[in-house]
Every structure is written in structure tokens, then in C-alpha cells.
Write a structure and sequence with these properties.
about 450 residues, elongated
């Protein structure tokens, strides 16, 4: 419903802009062409963020599935991860703004007043038309390669640019902006305030679309979107203001000059994303060592990571906490490599507490030697402790790992429901009740086949 409403509003605005422009003609075509070319080039240079999915992407718009279904989804996408998968954070800053130059150019056109001291007269509907036409022209090559960006990005761009233009262009064209604010520092402050509201609008839309697609809690998604605006979002807003003010003084020649800082920023973000991808691939390969050596069942660590991230989302964890949780879940069994005799089926949930803690401590030491963040190693080594003594993320890993071990064993022929009931019996000491119930809710939303019903009470 939310996705359809946002897309419908964007399409209605685009059609209205197209009709208005065809009827009245293009005002200042040279300026429109220059900004359109900038937006199209920005779309052409966009970074492909859909070539591979992350672990959390296994839980799609229909909600999280049972660990078996999550494993199927994850393994189907694993080849893409190995070729340069995206950041595990479902909406990392570079994913939220895959075409920052195009976004900055669109904002600059929406906030454009004079052009080399000559007044302009383009309105909101023409701005929407130019932005949509240029964006569509820029994504044609991506469509030809089968890597078209999602429609939500374009819909958000249309709505946020229309919002910024509606707050600026009527005041400028009527002369009230110059009368009330003038052309000095107050104009810059007004533009910055307007861009702050525009960024807030974009974050609200992005979080609403993500919540509608995934079913994840809206609050943490909005918090992560707002935090992301402090990164590449700030660079986009600052570049948009600089472009609009530069064109007002120097004309259209200011556009290529002000593009350079944002292009360098975009390059830096791409390099950071590449480093994160390599780092994640290294951790994934290390985690699979237990499977290759025969200590755990194939796909066990990935299934635990998939379901742990889904539970973390349900509990409202931030993106950074989810990344730490994912790494710890992938490496939670790494301590078994020190064992002479493998645990039967790799299921550590049924081991005596002292033995389970010994294996976890060994795993924490291996994790520290591998160079992962210290908090990841702490979660790995504390996962076998009573939940009241554990860090919050370790409680998730322990409960999900126990569920996966029970489901993969032979002690519960009743399947997922019996495994969940076993976890509920251990909530007095071993498993945090809130985590277990959250796990039950996540599983209960997962499709028709492997649904785990949540009993009353």
C-alpha cells in the first residue's frame, strides 16, 4: 500500500509535469539541457548495488522464513556475494544514494534562482519533467545490461525534488524571497534549512518504503536513514547548494567545477564499500571452515546469521549492531576447529555447559586473531553463558543457534514448533524470553510452508 502510494504520487507528478511542459513549452531550454545532461551523466555513473544481495536480504517482503528457507535464499545469492557483494547493511549510505551526482544536480536545479545574474522562470512542473526525463535517459544503459535501479529510487527523487522546488520556486518567481531574505547569508541559511527538510522527507520516504517491503520496524529504519544523511547525504546537499549559488553568479560553467568534489567523495565511498565487501568475504570464508572440515552441517553458520539478523531487525537494532551481529553469528562455531573429536552434527546446544563455554572461549580467541572487531570476539566467546551474563547480541546468537541445532537434530521430530517449545523451557537460565518470542514472531511470518505457529500466551 505504501509502495504503491509513493510510486503513484511520483507517476502523477511526472505526468502532470510532462503535460504542463508540452503545453507551455520548455522555459530556458539551455539551462534545462545543462542540468538534464548533468543528471543523466550522474545516472550513467551510478554504482550497481543490485548485483548481489546480503545475508539480511534473504528475508524478503513476505517476512522472514524458517532457517531452511532462509538458507535456500542465501545460497542462491552467494555466488553474487563472492563476485563483489554489497554491504550487509540493507541500506548502507552508498546504497541509499547510488547516483549522488544525479541527486545533487536535481536538487541544484530545484533551488536554482538567477543564472549568471539573469532571472530564471522555470517552475516546479518543468523541474520534475527535466529530472524524470534525464534520469530515464541515464538508466537506459543499465536497463540494457539488466541492472536497472529500483523504481523506488526514482520515485523518491521525484517527490523530494518536487518538495524542494515547491518550497523555493514560487517564492523566488514572485519576488518575495528576495524581498524577505535578499541575496546575502540569509539566503544560504534558507537553502540549507530547506535542504535539511528535503533530506528529512527523503529519509521518511525511504524508511516507509523499506518497512513496507520487508516488514521490519519503522523506527530503526528511519533512524538509520537519518544517520546515513550525515554521510553522503550531507555531501549531496552541500553540492546542490553550491551548484545553485555558483550558477547564480558564474553561469552554467560552475556546474563542472562543483561536480569534482562530489565525484571524489563518491569514489571514496566506492572504495570503502569494496573494502567492506572483501572483509565480509574473508569472514564468510573463515566461518565456512567448520563446514568444510566436517565439524558443522553445511550452511549452518549462514542460516544462523540469516535468522539472527532477522531477529535483530525485529528487536530494532541499528545497522552497525546488525553488522556486528552478523559477523558474530557467522563465526559462532569457529571454536570447534580446536576439537579433536567433532561434536555430533556440530550441535553445541546440547553440550554440557562447561564444554560449551570452553568451545566458545576458543572461538573468541580465534576471532580475535582473525582481526574482527573486539565486540564480535566478545559475542563469540560469551555465547554459551547464561543469558543474564551475556551481552545483548550474544543472547540472539545463542537462541538462534540452539533453534537451528534442535531443528537439524533428531530430538524433535515435531519440527520447528517443538524446537521453539524447547527454547521456551530454557528461558529461566539459558535463553532470554524476549529473544525467543521475537524469534517465534519472525518465524511465524515466514510463508505458508515452513511457518512456525506462535501458540497462544
Amino acid at each position: 500500500m505504501v509502495v504503491g502510494g509513493v510510486r503513484g504520487a511520483a507517476v502523477a507528478l511526472a505526468l502532470a509535469g510532462l503535460g504542463h511542459t508540452l503545453w507551455n513549452g520548455l522555459v530556458e531550454p539551455g539551462t534545462a539541457l545543462a542540468f538534464g545532461a548533468l543528471i543523466a551523466c550522474g545516472e550513467l555513473a551510478r554504482r550497481d548495488t543490485r548485483g548481489a544481495r546480503d545475508i539480511r536480504g534473504a528475508h524478503d517482503t513476505r517476512g522472514a522464513r524458517d532457517t531452511r528457507a532462509a538458507q535456500d535464499a542465501g545460497e542462491a545469492r552467494e555466488a553474487g556475494d563472492a563476485q563483489g557483494g554489497r554491504d550487509t547493511r540493507a541500506a548502507a549510505p552508498d546504497d541509499r544514494q547510488p547516483a549522488p551526482l544525479a541527486s545533487a544536480g536535481a536538487l541544484a536545479y530545484a533551488l536554482l534562482g538567477p543564472d549568471a545574474a539573469a532571472p530564471t522562470h522555470h517552475g516546479v512542473l518543468q523541474i520534475v519533467t527535466v529530472v524524470v526525463a534525464a534520469a530515464l535517459a541515464g538508466i537506459v544503459p543499465h536497463i540494457a545490461r539488466g541492472r536497472a535501479p529500483t523504481a523506488d529510487h526514482l520515485a523518491r527523487r521525484v517527490l523530494t525534488v518536487a518538495f524542494a522546488a515547491a518550497c523555493f520556486q514560487p517564492l523566488y518567481n514572485s519576488g518575495r524571497l528576495e524581498q524577505g531574505i535578499g541575496q546575502g547569508p540569509y539566503l544560504v541559511l534558507y537553502l540549507l534549512l530547506l535542504l535539511g527538510l528535503t533530506a528529512l522527507c527523503d529519509a521518511v520516504l525511504a524508511a516507509a518504503l523499506a518497512a513496507a517491503r520487508t516488514g521490519w520496524p519503522y523506527g530503526p529504519l528511519l533512524r538509520d536513514e537519518l544517520r546515513a544523511q550525515l554521510g553522503i547525504g550531507s555531501a549531496i546537499c552541500a553540492t546542490g547548494v553550491a551548484m545553485a549559488l555558483g550558477v547564480a553568479v558564474a553561469g552554467l560553467w560552475a556546474l563542472p567545477v562543483f561536480c569534482v568534489p562530489l565525484l571524489l567523495t563518491q569514489l571514496s565511498f566506492h572504495r570503502i564499500a569494496a573494502i567492506r565487501t572483501t572483509y565480509r568475504q574473508t569472514i564468510t570464508s573463515l566461518a565456512r571452515a567448520t563446514e568444510i572440515a566436517g565439524y558443522t552441517r553445511p550452511g549452518h553458520s549462514r542460516r544462523v546469521a540469516v535468522l539472527s539478523c532477522a531477529v535483530g531487525r525485529e528487536l530494532g537494532l541499528s545497522e552497525r549492531e546488525l553488522t556486528v551481529l552478523e559477523y558474530a553469528a557467522l563465526m559462532h562455531d569457529i571454536g570447534q576447529l580446536s576439537l579433536v573429536d567433532p561434536v555430533r552434527a556440530g550441535a553445541t546446544a546440547g553440550l554440557p555447559p562447561a564444554e560449551a563455554r570452553r568451545i566458545a572461549a576458543l572461538g573468541g580467541e580465534v576471532a580475535r586473531q582473525s582481526g574482527v572487531p573486539a565486540e564480535v570476539a566478545v559475542i563469540v566467546e560469551r555465547q554459551a553463558d547464561p543469558y543474564r551474563e551475556q551481552p545483548a547480541l550474544a543472547r540472539i546468537v545463542r537462541a538462534v543457534n540452539a533453534y537451528e541445532d534442535l531443528l537439524g537434530g533428531t530430538r524433535h521430530p515435531g519440527g520447528p514448533l517443538a524446537a521453539l517449545e524447547q527454547l521456551r523451557l530454557g528461558t529461566g537460565r539459558d535463553y532470554q524470553p524476549e529473544v525467543v518470542e521475537c524469534l517465534a514472531r519472525v518465524l511465524a511470518r515466514g510463508g505458508r510452508d515452513r511457518v512456525v505457529p506462535v501458540p497462544p500466551g
